[in-house]
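This protein record is not my work; I was only asked to verify it. Where you disagree with what is written, explain briefly why. This is what I was given:
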Amino acid sequence: MTTLAISQLKRYVRQFCHEVSSTAKKPNPEVVTDLIKNKKVIKLNIGCGTDYKRGWINVDNNSDNNIKKLDLNWDLRNPLPFADNSVDFVFNEHFFEHLTIEESEPIMADLMRVLKPGGIMRVAMPDLREVVKAYLDPNWNKKAFIKQFGLEFVQTPAEMLNMNFYWWGHRWLYDWEELQRRLKERGYNKYKKCSLRNSSHKELKNLETRDESRLIVEVTK
């Protein structure tokens, strides 16, 4: 292949990638415009998967191609298409444990960017301490989650523990101490620990769909 042909191919690839990327980044204008036009509370359900919440803008990159209803197909490695200080609430469940620490920092910063002053991000995830408790429990294989998730094939508590770290795309598990550490390092000092499906804000009540979401925090901008 000549140098000219290679140059033309590279140019074509760059143009193609730009077009695909631009298409993927376009939000559903009807959903976003309707919420803003009617001056409703703006709420983002981040990494929503198949959990479509009415009244929220449901955001996911649909990497498994299994989401039937989605408002915004978005790769969160790119800044969200919302202005600074424009969103009231952000929610995510079982999202941040799928990111490395290096990946989570800019994404969390962008979620905080779009929040209005006084806006709240609610984060729900599995608690590493609960995972370790199950590992240390002699009756670990009788836990409800074993049958619930079809894990009867697991033979030892060590196997179960390692699966929590490495299966399902997990990259970093948190306990309360670790989560507080990362929040403080990033300059987020207004936060409080919450219990499953409970909040002092009606918009953030009864959001969790998974009983194993045992580590929950609300971070205020």
